[in-house]
Amino acid sequence: METDILADVSTYLGDEVSEQDNPVLLILINRAIRKICSKRYPYGYTDKQKAAAVSKYRDMVFDAAVYYWAKQGSEGQSSHSENGISRGYQSEDDLYFDVVPMAKTLL
Questions:
Q1: Could you report the per-residue pLDDT of 80-106, keeping only the tens digit for each?
Q2: Going by C-beta distance under 8 Å and a sequence separation of 6 or more, which residues neighbour residue 22?
Q3: So where are the chain's domains?
Q4: What global pTM score does this model have?
């Protein structure tokens, strides 16, 4: 599952990445997976639930990995101005807005 997403992210980023960047990209992909799973299953999750979440939110994992890659070196910045050019950054929480938490009922 992670290797398929890695291939897509590498293809999307094109010449910006090489084979040597794959370990870093996998870290970013796994970070996105952990965030999605933690939001989807706030009280813990199994490997089966993790696989289901990655399958359901695969595009979100992809988007988050690309987002993390693009923000390297500017972590923590909410905006940036230089030579008359201003940049604002999307909040990381906005990436995971559509993850629907699962809850258990107590009987």
A1: 777 887 777 777 788 888 898 887 776
A2: 6, 10
A3: 2-72+89-95
A4: 0.82
